[in-house]
Each structure stands twice: as structure tokens, then as C-alpha cells.
Protein 1
Amino acid sequence: LGPAWALRLRTTASTGHRLLSPGRRQATGRFEAVARHAAPTAAARVAVGGAPTWFWSTCAMIFTALTVQYWPVLRPRRRRLPRGSTGWPMLLGHSLHLLGDIGGWLRSMHAKYGPAFRCSFFGTHVVVVDADVYDRSFSKLDSTARFVPLWPTGFQKLLGPNALQFLDGGSGSRGARHRRLKRKVLDALSPVELRRFLPRMQAIMRQEFDEMVRETEVHGHSCLMPHAMRIVKQVILELVLGAGGIRPDEYLRDTSKDLLDGMIAAPIDLGRFSAYGRAMAVRRAYQRDVEEQLAASLKRLVEQAQAEEPTAETRTMLSRLAEDCQHGAGLTIPEMQDMLISLLFGGSLTTAETMQWLLVELCRHKDWLSALTNEHQRLAGAVGGVAASWDAPEGGRSPCPKSLAACYETLRLHCPIDVLLRSVEEPVDLGDGLGTVPAGWWVAVHLTERGLRQGLDFDPGRWERRSPGLEVSAFGLGPHSCVGRQLALWELQMFLHVWLTGYQAEVLSEETYFVTGMKRFRDGLPVRMHRLPSPSY
């Protein structure tokens, strides 16, 4: 590249020599004569002012980088682009904000530029819009599979090609596969199916709380984060594979850091020597055991069918997904493997993180802690226990409206995922004079901005007599909304029930840090956990 650019510059200089004034032409001629007769001091020198090749190569690369970054913005257009900036030059743009408080930076940009603004990450131009602009300008495209999901390459390979996050959603032939897989998973995770699992979910959580009490007695403190991760993973694994289908020593260790690091790492699999390789090792372990458990589950179904009709209590989610139904054929083994990994990853990012913030917020606000404690003590004394009183995790049939409101408020303030990344296949007018997104550009939907307009104070009372469907955006928007919403809300409320009816928690440190744009508690949220003198469970 360097010699080619040097030759081009040299040719241009000699051609333009005739256009110079006589005085300048004479000076330039003397300079070129010296350059022609001077012997090159090294093979890396080029006959353009004696400049080395690396100099022109560097100039060419800088010119290319600046062209890539600024030409899509500066070139003439018939339609105005959204307001914004390109950030730092040399393809850096605003990329450094991905390492810190990305949510705080997005809110500051909204305050400066409005509900839609333009930014740049690693040379790629992105238009960030809030949920209101999404509803007005993109929801229809999303419902017809023309708002294409975008994820890092390593993340796509990590979750697998059958993950719902990566498939085109909405109506039409492009969204057919996404609709089939999503309906099958929603059926398997319906409130009717999940309600049977509530007693086991309660036992799993009580086991982890007892372990935190034991750690507090031995070491003087415990950490909530690893236990929240174990709760989420064990609930999902037992739902999918059955109680005897997991190996706790392998599955229940904390793999969240491996998965988070592998999500944005370069897709180079070097085993334990690379972040992506460590994440892929977690995936391969899940793949292997899903295949084994599917074979064992199908064998049990055949044996039960020969003897008697299998009962619903003996069926796992895996066996239900493998069956044909009105929504289509049963899931294949690769589809089940990718589904399980997606549920585990999503649960680690949303439910486990929200459990920690829920405990911290309630420990900060003693009035709400007291109100929720009374609510769950009444539920514990109901005839038949929790399972008999709980028909659905949300809505008018929830026996714990204050606890549900506390979950909504925690998700509003501490949404684990700030943005959803998509691309558009056609120009999109944002309306209200906000500009037009060109075809092929990326669009980031800012999920948390609409909720945070209501303030930064923790007040679950704001959810009384309000529908959370449109305002709780932590589970996504449009056809790609999270299939595990009902499961996550039931886990959060069961977490509150077990904690408030049997244990007392003291938060020792609320120090936080940012990793991959996520705000997490340092040292896994140190707490002291004690049993209540007279538990009500």
C-alpha cells in the first residue's frame, strides 16, 4: 500500500509541476534533482522527498480510517441524518464507553441530542433510539422481520445458530422458524407447567440460603452472587433435564465471567488459553449432557408408554419440547442445546443480577422491607402453602402484589441489559424532525431510558394500578421479547418469599464496578445471613 501511494503522489507532483509559478517551479526542480541523484540509504526508502515507505503506509492507513469513519456522515444526502457525533477519530469513536457505565453515557447523550442520536463504535455508525421512537418507527418493521438482530460474532457462536435472539422474528416466511421455536418454549414455560415446579424451586432456594447461613457462621460473611447464580442454574437445569439430570460440581460453578468475557472476545478458540475458548468449553459441556439427557428422557417416555400413560409430574421440559404439537414439530437436538444455553445465559444476566439488587434496595428501604415481610408471612400461613395460592407470577391473580411491584421497580432502576442492537434494510424516517436512518445502518434501542424518566428513587408504589407490559422493558421489546419472563418473575418473588419468611440479611458492602457495560457488585455482594428465631415457613 505504501509504495503504491508513494508512486501516485510522485506522479501527481510531477504532473502538477507545470502549474507552479516560475519561482516555485525552479525551487521544486532543484529539490527533485537532489532527490534523483541522492542514493537511497535503505531498501525501505522511496523517491518522494526521501520519505520511508512506512511513512506513506501510515498516511494511507490514517486516510483510510478517517474516510471509513467520516464519509458515511459527511457525504451529501437527500435526507438529514439524526443529530450526534462520531466521537474520537481513527475508528475509535465512542467505543471506550463500552468498558464503563454505558447506561449513564446513553442517558447523557439523550439529554444532549434528544430521543434519537448518532454515534460510532469501532468505525460502525449506530443510531440510538429510545423506546418511544421504537414504538413509532420500528415496531412495525420488527413485527414483519425487517428489523434484523445484530450480535457479536463470538456471541452468536457461543449461544448457537438456533438461539431465538439471532433468528428473524415477526410475521411472514422469514419469521416462521422463530415463531415455531418461541411458541414451543412458551408452552413449556407456561404458568400451568411452572406451578408444578414451585415446591422444588422453594427447596432449591432454601438450600442456598442455609448454605449462606453456614458460611456466615464459619467465615463471618457470605456472598450472595454465587448463590444467586446457583439458584438460577439449578432451577433451569432441573426444569429442562429433570432432578437427576445434572452434575452439580460441573454445572453449578460460576461460569458467568467466562460467558461474559467470551461474548465480546475475538472468536478464537484456544481452549483455556483464550476467553472465547473458555466460554466454548462451557457450551460443549452443556451440548454433551443435553444430548445424553434427551436420549434418556425419550427412553423413559417409551417405557412409560408401554406400561401406562406418563403423568405430567414425571415429564421434563425437554420431553415436552421434543413432542409434536399444534405449533409444529418437536425441537431437534441442536435446537434444544441452543435453547438450554440461551436460558442459562439469560438467567445469569437478568434473574441472578436482579436478585442482588432486589435485596440491596429492600435493605436500604426498611418501610418496604417490612411491608413485603408481612405480605409473605400471610402467604406462608395460607392453606396448602405457596403452590396452592399462586396461580400466576404476575397480573391480578398474584397473591403478592407488593412483591411483584418491588420486582418491577428493581428492573426499572437496574435493568441488566441497556440496549438491543438491530440493523435496518431500508431508510427509516424517525419522525418529529429527528432525521432518517440510512439503509444498512445499525440501530440500538435504549431499553432503560423510558423507565428512568420517572426518577431514580426506589418506590414500588408507583406500580399500583398500572400495567407493566409496556413499561418494564428489561425483557426486551417486540417479537424478540424474552421467553423466560414468567419464570424470572416467579423466581424473583420466590426468592423474596424464602428470604423474608426464614432469614435475615445484612449487606456489608455495596461497592460496584463495570464489566462489559454491566454494573456488578464487587466481591459478589458480601452479606451476613442469619436464620430468623421463629421462621414462618
Note: The first strand starts at residue 116 and ends at 121.
Protein 2
Amino acid sequence: ISKTTKHFLYGLLLRLILLIALPALMDDGLLLPGGVVRYTDIDYDVFTDAAAHVAEGRSPYRRHTYRYTPFLAALLSLPMGGGRQFERVSLIWSVVLSTKYFGKILFCMADAICGYIILILRARSRKQRSNNNDVQDDQPKQHNSIIEKCIAQHINPSSEFIDALWWLYNPLPINICTRGSAEALVVLLPVLLTVALTVNDNGMKQLFTSLQTKTKRSMSIPLRACLAGILHGIGIHCKLYPVIYTVSFMANFSRQEQQQRRRCQSASSRGNHTNGSNDASSSSSTQQQLDQGWTHTLSEQMTYFQNCMCCTPQSSSGGGFPWKHPIKILMLALLWIQRLFLTPSSILFLLSSIFTMALTTYAAVHYYGHEALEEGLLYHFGRIDHRHNYSMYWYWIYLLRGRVASAEVVAPSTWVGNVPLIPQILILGFSSLGIAPYDLTFALFCQTFCFVAFNKVMTAQYFTWYLCLLPLCSERIQWSSRRMLLSLGLLLVSILTWLGSAFTLEMLGWRSHRQVWMASVLFFVANVNLLVAILNGYRVDKTWRSLFDTPGEGWSQKVKAS
């Protein structure tokens, strides 16, 4: 058994032990008599109650506050509908199929699979970086290669353990899934599978080794786009928020397809030059064609972006964003429309996502009525909840609901409530078009982090939305800088402050609403400050190497020549 599989089994076993031990100690009164503090999440009670309704042939939305996809309740109702089929099973299976543990076991298995996908993708990224380092120049890198060999001998044997610490042994996702939260099953697993299909099909071939032994041919980009679109549509149907990733996935598939076209053109051109003549002029001409394409486009866009965004005087050549030239802005918009929507892979991804999302939603409405659309999907567009909410908006929501309850006041929907959407839209647009084509996982992380930080509702489950993406781009972030350490320290202080204030409010019964709100504001400031530190510490050069510093791309040879 490989080390990756061992860590996956250890992580799964740890979750299964905790999901039985911790509820027994806290819920059943073995540790805390009276069940003062329950370990099982209230959402799990909602899931099981809705599943009981489905097992009896009723709608899951008869359970108040069930606002999820009806297929989740249908899945959890499978043991309930067994009837006498499960009466004579063994003791172990009776525990597994019981209402108390069946859903939690499914959630823990999905969470462990998410950790396994993270291990595979990090191992592939680490292998790709090691291969890229082999093609760099010798003079300044000879000393580093010796250091890298020493590090490889002492650190690489435990690199899988370090990868497992990001998720499989992380206390937060372990706590979330063992308490009975369905995030890993309904949204994190589809998102990570979509990322694995989009970034590279080699990661998927490692996930399914049996398929790799039957065929050595890699999946084509259009096929991966279709499969990724299906998974993406399932994620949108289950949780809605993955819809913000759509443009990023399309941009990345478009870049892959156009880069593949240029490689094929360069290969055919190189073959023609080899058949015709082998002189130096033909090889230099072939090399010049290899260096064109998305590599050249990336360097141009980085220079263009620096001229547009940096606070430096514009050059005499007239660099900068063409605000005073609407025709140039229109041409730039048409360029991106062409890249996003006029390539077969991006169109296939979009159509398969829309079709899957529409099909699953139609099936939910067909079997469970229009309430499935209202409660399972449309409700999340305007969800407002002040309970267990880390967002700084919770106090305003709490006061507004008090006014509505005490007097017949209709909750206003003014432009002030839409102000938080502005930074989200800016980050989403920039990361989707400027980062996602070249570094998909970092773009998705930034989008999710910003979406969660500025959202009006923020529970502990929301943190897993971006924590599952952070391990996939962590090596391209500079964590050891002073700015980053201060930002992480501020975040830790804000979390401890919030937890202490919330404890006085919910457990001690103090009137500390304003203190909790101030802690929420501090937590918001710490999150925004951390996002700025991450963007400032982003290592663009590592993205360049991972994309273009591979044999046959011509980038290494170009660096040597310069």
C-alpha cells in the first residue's frame, strides 16, 4: 500500500472513531451529564428528520428549516426504507445503517475522499515542480541542486504526511464532518473532482488506477470539459455558490485548448523543417514558433497589467489601460469573449454545467414539488440568519429582525445592502480573467475566500469551502514574510476574541451583543488583511515555471540564450 493510501485510511479511521466516541461522551451524557453541550450539529437532526419524511413517502420539506437538495434526504433515507431487510444483519451493520450513524459515516467517507484528492493533486504538483527544476540552467542552480538532493533525502519521505496535515489530519474538517455536516458530500467533493479534471487528467488517472492500466491514452480536453461540467452542475444544484467558478473553469479550459493547438502547429512545423532541411536557420525558426502562443501572451499581459495597475509613471510609449479609447476597450472585451466562449472546450463545459444543473433541479421539482426550487435553491439567494454567524452583518440583521417582529416594518432592500457585492465582483472578475487561465486553484481560492469574508452569512462550514482549495496553491504563496506572519497573528487574535465573546453571550447569558459584533468586525478586517497579504505574497514566477518551463516549450532555452 502506498503512503498516500495509508494516510487516507488513517484519516478515515480517525473520523470513524471520533464520530462514535465524541457523541457518546457529549450527547449521551458520559462526559457532560444532561447533554448541556451537544456535539452533533443541529443540521444533522434536520437531515435525519427530512429523511424520515422521504422514507414515509412525503416531501423532505415538511421538516422545518430543511433547505437543501431533496436528493440528500433521499440518500439518507435508504436504511429507513429497508424495513425487515436490515433486521437480521450483524451488530456492526446495524450500527452503520442506524439513523444515528449512517449519514455521518457517509459524510466522513466523502471528507476523507476529499483529502485523498488533495494528496494526489499535491503529489502531482510536487512531481511537476521537480521535473521543471531539472531543465533549468546549470551555473547558478548547481549549488541548489545539491541542497535539493539533501532535502529530498530527509524531507521527501514525510512529504505525504505534510500533505495529509492540510486536510486528512486537520481538526476543522474532522470536526465539521463528524458532527454531521454534509458539506464534504454535497459540495466539496464535486468541486475538488471538477478541479482535478480541469487542471490535468493525470490527477484523475492516479485516482482511478484501474483505468490507467487498461489504457495509456489521456482524456482529451473536450471530454474532460464535459465531465467537469457535469460535476460542476451537480455542485451548483446542491449548494449554488460554486456558480462563481464557472468563468474561471471556462477560461482555463480555453487556455489549455489554444495552447494544445499551438503545440500541434509547432510540432507539425518542426516536422516539416526536419524533412526539408536540418540547418540552424530552420531550427531557430521552429524554436521561435514554439515560444509564441500563450507563453508570449502571458508575458505581454503581465507587462500590460503592471502598466495598468502599478502606481508608476506611465512610459512614453503610452502604456496603461485605454480608458479614453473605447474602441480599444471593445476590442479587449471581444478578445476575452472569443477566448471564453468561442472555443469548443469552454462551450462544452458551460453547456454540460447548465444541462446538469437544469436536469437535477427539474427532477427535484418533479418529484418533490415547487417547494424544492424555493427552499433548496432560491432561498439561498437572499438567506439572512444571525445565529452562529461570524459575519459582521449579523448584528444589523438581528436588530432589523427585532424591528420587524415588534412593529409591522418591512425589511428594506436598499443599495446599502448590496455594497458588499462590489469587492466580490471586482475580485471575481479579475481572478477569473487574469489568474484562472494560468493558475486555476489560486484563482478559485481567492474567489471563495473573498466570497466567504464579505458574505452576510458565515458559519464554520463556510471555512471549508476555501480551506480545501488552499493546499492546491499553497506552494505559490510566500508564508514566511513578516507581513504574512502578522496577518496570520491578527487572524488568530480575532478568532479567539470572537469565540470568547460568543461564549459569554450563548453560554453565560450575558448581554454582550455589541462585543460580539465588534469581534466580528475585527474578524472581517483580519480576513481582508490576510487576503491582501496572500495576493502580495503570490509568487508569479512559480506559476510561469509550472506552465511553460517544461521540455519542448522553449522557455528554458530562451532563458539560457538571454
Note: The radius of gyration is 26 Å.
Protein 3
Amino acid sequence: EAIPIVTKLLLDDIKCGFSIVVTAECLRRLKHAEVYPYGLIHQTSIDEHGNPIPKKRLKHNLSVRKKSGLAINQRTIDDQLTDTQYGFALSRHLHKIHAIRFNNPGQRILCNKVDIDKAFRRLHTTPEISAKCCSTWHTHTIDSEGNLMKKSDTEVGTILTRLPFGASAAPAKFSIFSEISFDLADELIHCEQWDTDELLPPLHEQIPQPSRLEDGIPFGPALPVDVQISPDTKGGAEGYVDDGTNAVLDSPENSKMVERTRLCNLMALHLICRPHAGDDEPIHRSHIASIRKLLAEGGLAETYTFLGWLINTRLLTIALPREKWSVWLKSVVQLLQKDKASFDELSTLVGRLEHVCYIIPSARHFMNRLRLASMIADTYRVASLSNEVKLDLKLWIKFLSKAHEGISINNVVFRSPTSIPLSDASETGIGGYSLQHNILWRYEFTIEEQRSFTLNTKEYIAAVIAALISLQNDPCDYPCVLSLSDSSNTVSWLHKSNHDPASLPVHNEIARCHASNLLEHQASDFSQHIPGSDNHVADSLSRDFHLSNEQLLSLLNHTCPH
């Protein structure tokens, strides 16, 4: 069933001049030619009304000889590629939105998005590279019974002359162009000399007018952060590969910047790219900006989708859209009903859940066992789903539901901590305290408990308890905990697993407890290592059980009066 779809997409490439059709014999005789199979990527896009629609994308499988190391993607010299900036685009964008709200509480923030159409196909490749991006296909031939036939005389060759989708170097190459356009869009937003009444870019009439939410919806607060952004910031542009996005303060005195923000991406692309000649184009060429997506997402609004996330600037939240949540949740539930899973099932699920980890960092800890199962399935085609994996999947149902409900942007940006708990452990016990709360705590292990846990595990337990006590006493609506420990393993385990999940099952239980606590209190957690010599209060709490509480407090007040 994929054959007619691939044929249609291939014909589109040929129609636009992206691929050259040659005979199969010509391809075999082409010097330095390398032939790779086509692949079909199943994606979801949107129509002009913003409704989700299925999308098929043609790609070159340039990793087909991965194990031999002879594929193009395996021969790419990554160190020679231009450093990309788009990896942190979403983080920069959220910090900008947060800063605008922090400096302008109670005022609207509008955002929009402009998509570069046929992005990678906009860049030509050299003849040497084009020869290495060849493929073969068969023209449609129907037999007397209505079945598709593949015959040697129907085989044709194609030579791709544009940047291939599927090349590991393609994002870095294309971002050289796209980053320039995003930077220019940002400059245009702040260019007060640009009069949008006199100078308009092509396709400006395709952008809808701004859309605003009802006045009765409350404004989400922005809490202090550790990232310094100018308090004068009222707008800016950002981008990820082929998606340009903007944010701007919507106020009467900022109306001209709002209009410049609405049009900045179109103007930047018009200035950088060759103007579209309309009907005079010698070969079919679409506009650089996707008109369909302009109609759906080009208008400024308080809610919109960027990189698969639904951003609500009024509530100051980021959420997993309903269509993604329902499909991803269904895949988790289906795996819970199985004892084994294929590589395709596990690798797809891992990719989806890693997406969620961006807004719920504590969920990263529960990717370890799923990645391990995916690696096993890659080797043996299937992998068994252990009880521990299924417990992780059950917790992932909560993570997905929370992601769909929405996470405060305050919990995604680099916040100033509202609580700083310190903890330590010894062979005989654990203890800790918080710099913000007048609470010191300690616990002495029984003989059996002393023998059951390693010292690193005891440090881990102490850090989780210290964070919980801080959360329970933190009045902030969105607490931010900075956990300090003199154990480097504990600092790492608070966010991810780097141990064998089968040999240390108790770590899994501790991690689930910590993640549940953070979800319940709508909190974020950071961790940092401190030298043991600076952690003497927690160290004393974890080991000086020969002293009563009163004696220990007296000692600490004398030695550490601060």
C-alpha cells in the first residue's frame, strides 16, 4: 500500500526539480554513484484550519549499511559540521516568554509560528554528493488481475540534487540558512524604522489577525529565575530547523512591535531567499513559507503549538496536545498487556517518552529500563517486559496524564530555588536540614537496615527524604528544590539512572517515590554536589546518635551559629 504513496511523493520531487530521472543503466554507469533505498515516514501535520492530518514524508535511508560502517551517515565527519543552535530553541523561547510575563504581570503575550515549506529541498548539493544520493524505483504497471508488477524494464533511477531528508548532516547544513533567517526576524521585531503600513512582505494577507483569550481567564505568575534577561525585553524570535516562532508583549504602547512580530518571519525569508516569480517560475516552485500552515498558525495567539507542545501564555503552561497524549497513552497501555515487545514498538515508545522528559525531568530516571529493552529487541527482534519495566510503564501513565494536563513553565525554566535541602548518610543513619526552614531531621538505621543498603543507597534515600520535607514546608505554588549532597552518585540518581536496574532494584523504588512527590507538589528539582567538608551539619545529624536531640542542637548552635 506504500507503493502509490512513494510514487506520488517521488513524482512531486521530480516536478519541482529536486530529483533527476535517469535510466537504471545510466545509474549503474554513473561514476561514484551510491544507491540507497527510499523510506516512508509517517507523521502528523495540520490543515489550514489547524486540524491534525496524516502526513507522509519521503526519505533516503542513508544508514542502510550502518553495521558495516559504509553508509553515508556513518562516514559523516561530525566534527567538521557547523555547530547548531536549535537544540535549545524551545528552552530559549520559554525563558523569553517567562521573562516578558515576569516584567509585565497581568498582560497578554502573543505568539505565532511560520513553517519553511520543503525545507531541506531548498538547498542544492554538489554533484559529488548528488551522486551519493541515488535511488531506484519502479514505474506502475498493472497486470490483467489488477496487481502491481515489478519488472526490470520498468526500473528507473533518480538522482537527488537537493539536501536529502535522512542525512545526519542535513540539519546542521540547513540550520546555517535557517538560523540567519531567525536572527534577521528578531532584528526586524526590534527595528522601529520598519513601517508595516508602508512595507509589507509577500503572503502577508495569508496571516490571520491576532486571536486573544477571554478576559476572565487568570494570568499565570512568573517566579524568579537564575537566567538574566533584560527587563526591557518585550518580544523576540526563535527557531528550530524549519519552524520559526515569535513572542511579543500585547499592550497598547507595544502595538507597533506586535505588528512587526506578526510579519517578521515572512519579511526575513523574503529578504534572504529568491523572490517567488509566480506563474513565471520555469519549474514548479512553492512559496518559501507554507501557506497552509500560515493560515493555521501564522496568526498571533495566546495558545499555539510549537515543537509538539501546546503553549498557553495566559496560564503560563506547556502541555502535550490531546491527539499525541491519547495515542501515546494507548501505546503504553497496550505494552502493559504484553509480556514481550518488538524493537519497533519499544524504539517508537522511547522516542515519544523522551519528548515528555523535557517538561518532566524526573521522568528521565524511568527511561533506563525501556532503553535497555529496546537495545535487546534490536539484537533479538523482541525483548521480555519485566515487572520492573511494567511498574515504570504504570508510572508513565501518570507522567503522560500530567503532561497533557499541563506543566507550569515555572517548572521548566531555570528557576531560583525556593528550598535548598542538604543531606548526608553514614553507615548507621541519615540526616539533613534545609536552609529555608527551621527543620533538622535524622534517622538511625536498625542493624538489619545497616546491612541491607550500600552507603551510596543510604545517601540517595537521605536526599529524597530531605527533598520531601522541604516540599512539605515550602509555601510556593511551584516549589523549586536544589538538593545538595556530597555524594556524586546521589546527585546523578536524582535525575537519571546510570546503574544496572536489575542488580539495584531498591533504587527503582526510591526513584518512583521521589518522582511521585515532585508530581504531587508540582515541583521541580535540581541537584548539586558539595564537598564533604562543607556538609558538616548534615554529616553530624547522620552519625552522632550517641547524642540526644537537645545535646546535638546545643553542639550545632555552638559550632555553626549561622
Note: The chain has a mean pLDDT of 90.
Protein 4
Amino acid sequence: MSSPKVIDKRASTTAVDELATSSRRLSLPKSVVAAGGLVKWNAQVHHQELTAMVRAMVTAKTKEEAVNQVNTMIALDHHLWAYLYMRMLMDKDLDLAFSAILHEPAKLLPIMYTPTVGEVCQKFGMLPLFARGCYICIEDMGNVRSVLQEYAAAELPKGEDGKPLCDCIVFSDGGRILGLGDLGACGMGIPIGKLDLYTVCGGFNPHRTIPLIIDAGCGDAKENTAHLEIRGSPHYLGYKKDRVKHRSEAGTLVNSAYYGPTSIIRELMTAATDLFGPRCLLQFEDFNSNDAFPLLEEYRTEFLAYNDDIQGTASIAVAGLLGAIKLKNPKEKALIDALRRETVLFHGAGSANLGAASLLINEGKVPANQIFITNSRGIIWKSEDGQDGSFRNDEQKAFACVGKPNFDSKSLESIIANIRPSCVLGAAGVTPNCFTKEVIQKLVEVNKDDDSQSRPIIFAMSNPKSQAECTAEAAYTYSEGHAIFGAGTYFDPVTYNGREYAPGQVNNVYIFPGVSFGACVCAAKTIPDRFFLIAAQAVANSLSEEDMQLDRVIPARERLREVSLEVATAVVLEAQKMGLATRTLGADEAEVKAAVKALMWEPGKPATFGIPA
């Protein structure tokens, strides 16, 4: 299958880049426009010296030179500087930058995304600002199409019909950046970094993607976990007003601009599909949970859209559980059947854990009475009539156990002692190191008499690493090597009692690139939850003998692109089986995999290369 003949619109000089960027007014952050545009923003006293320093230190002309230069900074543990180096390299030579990342993905992806991206977002307004990234302010409601058109004209390649080429948009409102809270427009680091992973792991052409921020304002210092003054900072590049919110019918605080027939979300999604076609993927990212769930439900069947925080994180959690089951019993072939015998405790009731619970129950068919979730009030429960309970919203209520617990349901030790879970997944985001020695030892104790569950599963899913529920060393040491451990961020291998353990990174980077690419290349009509269970199985089935020996529940990071190809292939096959694929890629797995691989972008390909229209 070949791509359509297109015109390769690739800017050849910095002067051309600056000319294109200077024409942008609508699609830049409001404070940047007020400063006179991108060049003048970077010329301010606060930014000029840093921008010049970073530009001067990026001298690499070859992949080897780039890797050596960035590794020098990484060796000094200067990850923010390494990030700035790579961003400047991308601005100078996109192909060279991706060549470097593809050469050492295990070392450079943590620089481009988690864990480094958390600090990047907290300091985003202080860093050099580049042209990549579209900002849509709520002041532009009613004019969103024009904003997208401006960005597309300046930054996207065009096909032979003169229309801009865009395969996907990753968009956030900065309302819940990782576990760091509301960072507003400074959350742009997330869509940018996410799309880097789309390219490196999934094969998306970076020229044909848009990182986008919906700038609906930003909360004050109490709305982010580090209590940083974001909105009031002179470095803040976004809309310097608070968010306008109201109480939903469920009683939760939501962003008012996101709801109703003329909402900015509907306007964005309609404009994107009008401009780029109905198969342009629209991925929600890092919205506050109060908005994330209702928005997903409203748009998931109308557009090619999904929420990675809910569905992608759910999928990788299930993939990790399936991988852990393989570690407990390498001879087990019916992984989903074995999954149904697990009792799972989710600590934290955000989008990640609620999404995982939903996938386990609705697609994995795990009995609902084997799933327990906590919020700040303890175990989530409801009365038989549903009128009373500890739930905070309808999404939590859907997974509440019936009846008020007759034990201390706020203490993790007490919860574990009474419900006797075989798996504990933490994604609270605000309670680092809450999986204490006593908690981990209690988990081992309640599982030691069950031969089939003698190795409890512990996942510390919160990002960045500073927010993790426990470290790898704590999990292995306190459990005396019994625990099977995974984490949302990378932890170095741990040696305990003479054995080396390499914790699996239970991060949705193993899911979203492949699911997204698979859905796009077969021009799927929608992205149902079924795709995410299929993706989880594909990841678990990709474990190697080395992974098994090192107790790794998820394949090694060096194999991310390979695993993403397996996921994309599985998604395409399932889409064809379900009748959701509007483009058939092959009659069997081998044909589909070959067709998918042929469409994966690599450095050196034209800016227009990619998924056929």
C-alpha cells in the first residue's frame, strides 16, 4: 500500500520558519501574542540568554554527535538541560533529533516524556518557546476553525489537493498534568511529549500531528500540588484568568466552556474533522477527572477519539496484570481466565484506576465483587438503594461495593487484612510512599497461604517518580522478594538476596502509540474499549525470556517500537473483525503486520509521508 502523491512542504531555513511563525496570531498563547509574537517572547530578558545558550550548545550534525552531546548532560543528571537540548535539536533538524532518539530510546524517551516532562511543565513558561504547538483560548470560542486553519497553514505539510495533512491531534487543557495538578497552558509539554512517543514508538509522521492546548484559564497556587504561582507568574504564557466552572448534575465541579451544543470541545472536534477528515484521531490528555469521563462519553462514538488517561492507562494496567500472571505461572496460557481469579484493590479513584476497573469488569469479565477502589474517604461503598455512600461522583458510584465496611476502611493495612487482595494498584497521585513497609508486609501475609497467589502484585502507577506509592527497592525489600512489582515511571534494577529484579514500567507508552496507529491506518470508525483489552493481551504476549527471568511484567523499553507494532497489528485485526475498519490491510496477521510496518514513519521520509487519505 503506497501513500498518495503529495507535495513535500518542508521548511528549509530558519528564516522561512520565522516567517511562517510570524504570521501566527490566533494559534499562539495569549501572553506570547501580547508580547509581539514568538520571536519577541524569546527575546525578553527572562528568555533571551537561555534561548541563546541552548541554541549555541546544539552543534551536532550527525546522529552520533547528537547522542554523545545529550548523553554528556544525562551523565551529570541534568535531565532538564538534556530536554532543552533535544527540543532545540528538533527545532533545528527534526530528522536528526528522531534519529538520535530511535538510536537510544531507553535513555532518551524518559528525557522527552516522563519523568522529565513533569518539571518541564512546571517551568514551561521560563523555557525557550518553539513554534510547535497550537493554543486555542476560550476567548476564541466561535472562531476555533480559524485558529486551526492558521496553525495548519504555518506548520503542516499539504497534499497535492492543497489541503493540510494531519493524522492526529493530542489535546489537553492542562487541568491535571500527571500528578501535579492544574498548570494551565504550561501543560503543553504533555501533548508535545506525547506526540514524540507517537512517532518513536508508533510510527506517526511528526510533521502530520498537532499538539494542542485548550486554554480555559488556570487555577491559583492551591490548584497544583507544588503550590506554584503559575497564572500570576511573569513567565506564564497563557490566558491569565481563572477557570470558569459550575456544578454538574452529578455535583462535581466542571469547566463550563466544555459543555452544551456550542462548547469549545465540540467546536474543536468538528473543526478538526472538517479540516483534516473524519479519520483524524482526537486524543484527550490530562483533563481533570470531573471533565474527562463525561467528555469521553459524549464524543467517543461520534468521533475517532479516546482518553488515554482513562483507557490507555487502564489497558497498560491490565497488560501488567497479565504479565504478572505469566510470571507467577509461566505455563498459564489462558491469561484472561486467570485474571478473573484475582482480587484487585485500586488505591485512588482518579481516571486511571476507574478506567482500569471498568476494563477489567466490562471487557475482562472479572467479577465486580473482586474489585475494590479507595478514595480519600477510604473504600468506596454505597447503600443498597444507592442513596448513601462514600462515592464522590457517579463514576465512583458505579464501582462502589454494596454496604458500609465493618472495619477501618481508611487504613490500607486494615483494608488489605479484610479484603485480602492479590493485586494492589496505586494511582492516587497525591500520596507518595503510602505503600509502607507495614502495608507491603500485610499484603504478603494475606497471600502466603494461597499457592496460586503466593506472589502478590504491587503497581505504583503515579507519575512523576516523586509521587510514586513506593519505590522498587521498597517493594522487593519489604516483601523479601515475594512481590511482583511494576511502576508508572522507570526504576533502576534492584538486587535482592542475590537476584536481580528489573521492574516493568507499567506505562501507557506501550499502549497508546500502537492503538492510535492501528486505528488510524485502518481508518477505524471509532475506538471501543475492546481495542484496549486486545492491546493489553498483545503487550503481555510480547514478554521475552529475558523479561521473565528479570521479573519484568512489561517488555523492556528497548523493544517499544516492536511492541507497538504488535499492538497496532492486533488492533487492526480486531477492527476488521468487528466491522469498524473502513480500510482493509490484509487477510491474516502476517499481511496486516507488513502493511502496518510499511506505513511507519522513519527519519529521512518526506514530511508528507504517512497514512493514505
Note: Residues 308-328 form the longest helix (21 residues).
